[in-house]
Amino acid sequence: MKALATRLLGIVDGAEPLLRAVSAEESARPVLRGGWSRRQVVGHLIDSASNNHQRFVRAMLADALVFPGYDQDGNVRVQAVQEADWVLLVSLWASYNRYLAHVIGQLPEDKLEMSCTIGKGEPVTLRFVAEDYTEHLLHHLGQLGAISVV
User: Fold this and answer.
1) What's this model's pTM, rounded to 2 decimal places?
2) Which of 4, 8, 5, 1 is nearest to 93 (CA)?
3) Strand 124-125 relative to strand 115-118: parallel, antiparallel, unpaired?
């Protein structure tokens, strides 16, 4: 997991300046089919960091876990992400992911194959959750044109 943590740090270090270069005005404009703006996508990525943070920490303290699903549209709506300050969103996203890289780097080898069920999905391993988190992040950063080094 140390290598995954290092990869996550590299992704954040590459994407953060690209996100910071986006103006507040531009960050509020829709960029994805369905109308999501950069603010909403970054808000979604903050939610993803928060949800996965809980999964990683709780998994280290248990033998198997069942987590609730995630209502992405509802979460973005009720948090009023579209109205949030762009610099705040980027700063929180970058800081949270740097801390999450630290947490991922602490995942013990003997916990990586434990079963995690998220929502109505099939059980997956903690290793899969950690690796999928990074792929999910890359997917959305790619949508925003915020990937410089992968």
Assistant:
1) 0.92
2) 8
3) antiparallel
Give the range of the structural domain holding residue 47, as residue numbers without chain letter. Answer: 2-143
State residue 34's pLDDT score.
80
How many domains does the chain contain in total? 1
Q: Is the pLDDT of residue 149 over 60?
A: no
| DSSP labels, 57-97 | HHHHTSSEEEE----HHHHHHHTTGGGS-HHHHHHHHHHHH
Q: Please, which residues have CB within 8 angstroms of residue 88's CB and are 6 or more apart in sequence?
A: none
Q: What is the CATH number of the domain that holds 10?
A: 1.20.120.450
Residue 38: inside a domain: yes
* Structure token digits, residue 136: 């999910």
Residue 150 placed within a domain: no
